[in-house]
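Inputs:
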Amino acid sequence: MTPIDFAPLIPAFPLAAAILAALLSGTKLKRAAHVPAISGVALSFFVALFLLLKCQWGQAIAGGAPYVQSTLWTWIAAGGFKVSAGIFLDPLAALFVTFVTGVSLLIFIYSAGYMEGDYGYWRFFAYMSIFVFFMTTLVLANNFLLVYLGWEGVGLASYLLIGYYYPRPSARDAATKAFITNRIGDTCFAVAVLMLYLTFHSLKFSTVFYGVLANPAFRAAHATALFWIPLLLMFGAFAKSAQFPLHVWLPDAMEGPTPVSALIHAATMVTAGVYLIARCLPLFLYDQPVLHLVGIIGCFTAFLAATIALRQFDMKRIWAYSTISQLGYMFMGLGVAAGASAVFHVFTHAFFKALLFLATGSVMHAMGGELDIRKMSGLGKKMPITTVCILTGCLALAGFPGFSGFFSKDDILSAAMNATWGLGPWLAVIGLLTALLTAYYTFRVFFRVFCGELRLPATAGQHEPSAFTLPGPQDGGGNRRGDAGTRGHGDTGKDEGKIAAAGYEPETVNQTPHTTIHKPEIASHYPHSLDGAPTMWLPLILLAIGATCAGYLGVFGGTEGGWIGGFLGRVPHMQPAVRYVVAPAGDMYLPAPWRVSPSVMMLIGAVVSLVGIGAAAYWHWFNRSAADTLAGAVRPVASFLENKWYIDELYRYGLVRPLRLLGHVLWRVDRWVVDGVVGVIGGIPRWLGFSIRSSESGRLRSYAFGMVTGAVLVLLVMWYWLR
Amino acid sequence: MNSLAQPILLEYLALGAALFAIGLVGFLARRNLILIFLSTELMFQGIIINLIAFSCYYQNTAGQSFVIFVLSIAAAEAALALGLVVLLFRRRRTLNVDAWSDLRG
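Outputs:
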């Protein structure tokens, strides 16, 4: 048995776990649904780790070859069209599947504590396992159709999990929004798959990427298809990875339980888009305009999301926008052909974003479901473990020197700065500006919530009301929060314009004292640590270690790009970054000269990060009232950012409302024109029947008379005509 | 086929037609369920006489054997019809056929 023969086990274990967890539903063991789920993903992780190690030091991939693949069975055989289910293993897939399962494992362990006693415990773990199953299928597939299966599968699983609290209308709306937004991308991806088959007559990666693509004559013959395929793949990836203009679903996706957000943001959902483009980078490298478009939109999204995160007040919402922003960085890296740097950032981001979400979940748990950063302060004293962990995550996200995010972000920025593409340095400059904003908004949350004087919301220490005990679907939205306005601003369409009317919201909460416990004696009512169960803080510590150390894998252990760079560099199009660009003809990669050396970029990055953190410390720790003054001074800008650049409103008035109007018009047409015609046709026999029904007297003798008359008539007819 | 048979056939046919006509008029005019039923029996007999007359006229037994069939079916139908009449009488306590006009449009 070669190592790749073990690869099918990676998706198989979570699938089996999902089925098992679902089967537990009716039994007394349903409170133990986490056992199969955690074991399944743990076994997957060990297999994945084994494969990774075998790829690095063993002979999983025969020396020199960029990949190894195996065929499991024939999936579809229809005439000439034949698709097999198979495994494609190369360093990219091995790295992806390892951190996906690893981070998922920690999230699963955390969930066991977080979801304790929840109404749909088994359902939750069944969905989570199926999520991991589809994601690992997507990563390990050896052809586009199987990738598409996994792609749709993660879309489905995310829909189910975002709408997990289905009695709550906002959760249902968020799930629908995520699903519909993803459909747009899925459709593009599906068309791209069809075009790939028409162009290459195969859907296998080995045929598409390592075959005729290198032949200039082939590329010239299929220039149109080779332009459209990457473009459509790009839109598919943008929907899945929440890039402008399809990013709107991700901030709402936090309607699901917090571990779901962690899973979506770190491991299983949004990384799929990055994986897809990283995997298909050969197609993009030969189609530079689309590749550049990826970079430009990525850079713009990074900036857009970072600015929005500046003026949000819900912790999870801020992390959601930071995810969009960081994904923007990844696409920027891909846009300058620095595949290894982008994947490196995905890798580090998985750790610190999972950490941030899970730690936020702990805060939410302790605060009785409250997440508004204006209503809490100084939690550091009450939740020491959580605070240290979230600090690590914040430092990594803010790109503090020495933490993982610093190295990976810097890798991308230096790649952009040194790209042979003329716009690259500009992207890098915007990226640096975004990094400044990132450091600021990250530590705005940290200093507000965990530093300063102790202040807890009124709900602190209470159990969060279950979504499944609500009296009715009508008032489900606001019940859980006590104040619907603090969360899910207007995306449900119900409370649209609420924030717009308010202009901007002040950052201090003293105007609403009834929601805040300011008195120290009540605060000291919670003498113990609020960190929660060990199953909750243990994964946090492990993730914190990952968030600190993961970056060093991209620095040490290799010449350029560290161990990760060297490992991924075995994939031809993943050569360490930048300095390899596509040559106009002949060879695929050519070295390019440095523009700004990586060490200088690193220094600039460190300074930018420190400035951002310092600014946040000033405005949100030492002198909080100054932040309000500042926000008041730039009120239109603050309002603009609070409303998320009015993109949701743009969609509502530009797309949703016209579509609804069109639907209404079509409904009327159907009602009046189509139904009218059908009604007239159907009415004719009805009218005929009505007009002669009075001839039916119900009397035997008149029927008999009719019969006799008829018989006589028939006889007369026979007499005259048939004689 | 002799010439003597001709007037005999005609007379028998006239008798059958008369019986049939009497039955028909009774069937149309009467209101009593039993009498309506008896009228139908009269019509049967008119037909039967026709059949026998033709049977004699053509000198074969087909008509007569048909008569056996008709009579046996009439007997069975009589049992059924009288049962129905009893049932209808029990429902409405009357034999007037006009009491039953539920199928009026």
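Remarks. The interface with chain B takes residues 693-701, 704-705, 708 of chain A (CB under 8 Å). The longest strand of chain A covers residues 68-78.
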